[in-house]
Amino acid sequence: MLIQIPDFVKTYSEKCELIFLDVGVIEAHNDFNAQTAKVFSCLLSGEFSKEGSEYNCIKPTQFRKVVGKDHAEFSTAKQQDADEYLRYFLTKVDENEKRYRPVDAVRLKLEQRLEDSASNRVRYTQSNEYVLSLVVPE
Q: Where is coiled-coil annotated (predicted)?
């Protein structure tokens, strides 16, 4: 899904050389931006989806280790909730990529209106979100 968003493509594919220059060869193995750039570059290159090729796959094992590091659930190989993982991943992108800020393309400000029925007072709260959850009636 994220490889369809131009800001992510620019940051992690078109500008991936800058990421690797900033990080260096030795640190790239454990660097969030470098591992994300590797996955984006592989997915967008088409080199790993050639029919009949022995390299017809991408195994993002190191990517998963780096992204899930320091998280109790995402550091395991167990199945995860997609919504929770997407929110977590976008938070990690926001923390790690300060130059191009690709998360701004999917960030939205959610305003919630709360009304106290006893006093008729109204309060508004705002929060930054990456995913808009909607209730779909049956």
A: none
Residue found under tokens 């190191």: 62
- Report how far residue 25's alpha carbon sits from residue 12's, in angstroms, rounded to the nearest whole number: 17
- What 3-state DSSP class applies to 109? strand
Give the residue extent of every domain in the chain.
2-107
Show the low-confidence residues of the chain (pLDDT under 50): none
57-77 pLDDT tens trace: 677 889 999 999 988 888 887
User: Which of 56, 17, 14 is CA-nearest to residue 34?
Assistant: 17
pTM of the model: 0.81
> What Rg do the C-alpha atoms of the chain give, in angstroms?
19
- The one-letter amino acid code at 118 reads A
What's the gap between Cα 25 and its chain centre?
Answer: 23
Helix (H) or strand (E) holding 131: none
